[in-house]
Amino acid sequence: MTAPGVWWIGSGHWDIFVAIYLFLGGISGGAFLVATLAEWFDSRDDSDGYDVITRWGWTLSFGTIVVGSWTLLAHLSGPFLRAFLFPVRFTNWSSWMAIGTWVVVVFSFFVMARMIWATFGTEATDDASGLPRHVVNRLGNNLLVDWVVDLLDWGADRTRPTGLARKLTNVIGVGLAIMLVIYTALLLSAVGWNVPLWNEALLPPLFVASGFSAGIALVITVAYQLHDIDTHLVHRFGKLDDVVIVAEVGVLAALLYTLSVGGVTASATLANITSGVGLLLLIGVVGAGLFVPLAISTAQMLSNETSALSTKQVTTMKFGLVIAGSFLLRVLLVFTAIQQPIVVT
After folding, report:
1. pLDDT above 50: residue 2
2. Distance between alpha carbon 132 and the CA centroid of its chain, in Å?
3. How confident is the model at residue 9 (pLDDT cuts 50, 70, 90)?
4. Residue 310 predicted with pLDDT over 90
5. Residue from 203, 166, 173 nearest 188 by CA
6. Integer Cα distance of 78 and 217 in angstroms
């Protein structure tokens, strides 16, 4: 008889597409929340630029969920038609894979409607911040393009909610966006009992904070680079991002603490994170993605508006680091996780 041993199981069945999907799902939900928040501020503040942020929020939210869904299908490596039929044919409704798929489908149609309402119809504008309409206009003037634009304008005007229906639509949209981000966490934490890093209590708030933070960074960066929006709007959303980052730091610290006081598997996971590639990822997440952006924000608040620290380039770099850190967090969680060992004899 051979001596008993321990077989550690890594996360070899995951690939980079999973990390990309988790990242894009989180940033899509975060961008939707930013658009909703900007729309709410727009009705209460005379500052110019909220409408631009709102339209780019819907557009980027839709684009990232579409690309994210494609990366998930690429990971599954199955026929696309079968993948699209998955939410209909799947019968295990206690599975977060099935629930989450429906969340993604419903959210995708919902954010597409918000994007069309914001960029087509009599209430929409023709500037470049309405990216879908801008793309259609660039296709040139011909009967097909004109027919498509007229159809979208007609449909937007007749389906756009008003009054109480609009408020209800906003509530439903925010709920779907939060569910989308939480679902990407629950997809992992559903097996948290076997993988200490995927803590079912801490992973959902960590993903919500990270997704919202990255959503703010992406939407404000695009709006700031492409349009002449008021700098105080950028600073307002930047301060909001700082608050979210501080919350993210707290949740991440709590997650690492649970590993330090956990069992053998938790200790092995912590060792995996704090050495080799795991350590590089952790430095990227904590340093570049969290502490450096906070340091830049602090320096900007202490300096005057004409300081080199307050330029568009520095602000863009700060938001870029936030986005990169959000992606590295998903990579860290996917590739450094260790399952409970199997005892072999």
Report:
1. no
2. 21
3. very low
4. no
5. 203
6. 34
